[in-house]
Specification:
Layout (H helix, E strand, L loop, with lengths): L10 H5 L16 E6 L28 E4 L2 E4 L17 E5 L4 E4 L5 H12 L6 E5 L11 H8 L2 E3 L2 H6 L7 H5 L2 H4 L9 E11 L2 E9 L6 E6 L4 E9 L11 H11 L6 E6 L9 H19 L7 H4 L11 H17 L10
Parallel strand pairs: 5-6, 6-7, 11-12
Antiparallel strand pairs: 1-8, 2-3, 3-4, 4-5, 8-9, 9-10, 10-11
Helix pairs in contact: 2-3, 7-8, 8-10
């Protein structure tokens, strides 16, 4: 059961809410059902990388990290689609401080974004980034990878689907949308490792669990758990303040992933998009997917077909959320397909 009961009467309250591995030698045992390596591990950086100032013609992201717990700082992106105005800075990523390195959760939309994020974090602690963990394959979350590989020698841990579906030279969404002075230097590189199931490890005295939950928001989703900080890094399995894009996702997979996350003890949860990180962080996601399941199934029981399903399931409780008009109808249509015929084979759309 989900840790929260969904009460439709609280919708108005929700609407008012604001806003692995190159591990150190103390790495503990793995509990994953499968661990694979795509490439030889790069040598770990032994000291912090050089910090470069923003070049004169380089887009300035004006990044300001927000401390969310004792050893965690995050960058929060806009509740918007990627544009040249925001430089693709529309998702959240976090730096986790250990005794000898930063561990990074997602890397952002470009090499330049990643470089500027590290410059901001180096003012807090002069540490290298040796380990990067990725939430899923959508490119707003990981196109900064090659900065951390080239400059820091970081080990990139993420879903195998990135290696299958994205290759050097592919023109993904960010390459199409961003300006040259935003995407410059960005390259698609493979992840070094991927894991199935629960992978528990220790870096620099800090315990982590990297958990695969399968097809939730995307074809292959992960969350990261830090028991010492009672923190969950949810990736796009959780969003708040905006409507999710379920173009590759599964309503039932999302619900199951939310249930799995809530078996962990947590007080801080970082969404993939959104600013709410306290115990209310996943309320909107739980409500959205629970109501989507219940109302689509009810409409189908009442013989509503694929033509009428969008009008029958408006989920007006969410109409004031960002990107409702752009994304909700598509989410309803995909939910109908899931409950009617099952989800189709994953189609890669860059």
């Amino acid at each position: 059961m989900l840790k929260k009961m969904i009460n439709p009467l609280v919708v108005s309250a929700i609407a008012l809410l604001p806003l692995m591995s190159a591990c150190s030698s103390d790495t503990s045992k793995t509990e994953s059902t499968s661990t694979k390596t795509a490439a030889k591990e790069a040598p770990a950086a032994q000291k912090s990388a050089p910090v470069e100032a923003v070049a004169n013609d380089e887009f300035d992201y004006k990044l300001e990290p927000k401390q969310v717990s004792e050893n965690v700082w995050c960058f929060f992106g806009a509740l918007d689609m990627p544009t040249q105005e925001n430089g693709g800075n529309m998702s959240n990523n976090c730096y986790i401080k250990t005794k000898d390195q930063w561990v990074l959760w997602d890397t952002g939309a470009s090499y330049i974004y990643a470089k500027q994020a590290y410059a901001a974090m180096s003012k807090i602690a002069d540490l290298p980034v040796k380990t990067v963990l990725l939430s899923h394959e959508h490119d707003d979350h990981w196109l900064g990878n090659n900065y951390y590989k080239e400059v820091h020698g970081a080990n990139i841990v993420g879903p195998e689907s990135i290696n299958k579906n994205y290759h050097d030279g592919d023109v993904t969404r960010m390459f199409r949308i961003l300006a040259e002075n935003q995407i410059r230097g960005t390259k698609i590189i493979p992840v070094d490792e991927w894991h199935d199931g629960s992978y528990k490890f220790n870096i620099g005295g800090v315990d982590f669990e990297y958990m695969s939950v399968g097809n939730g928001h995307s074809v292959s989703d992960y969350f990261l758990y830090m028991p010492s900080e009672k923190a969950i890094f949810a990736g796009d399995l959780v969003m708040n303040g905006r409507i999710t894009s379920n173009r590759d996702g599964s309503v039932m997979g999302q619900i199951e992933a939310l249930e799995t996350m809530n078996t962990r003890e947590w007080t801080t949860m970082i969404p993939g998009h959104g600013f709410i990180i306290d115990e209310k962080a996943d309320d909107e996601s739980i409500m959205y997917f629970t109501l989507m399941r219940d109302r689509v199934e009810e409409a189908m029981d009442n013989d509503i077909d694929s033509i009428g399903i969008v009008e029958a399931v408006p989920l007006e409780e969410f109409k004031d959320k960002k990107m409702y008009d752009l994304l909700h109808a598509l989410n309803v249509s995909r939910a109908y397909m899931e409950f009617d015929m099952g989800l189709p084979e994953h189609e890669v759309i860059h």
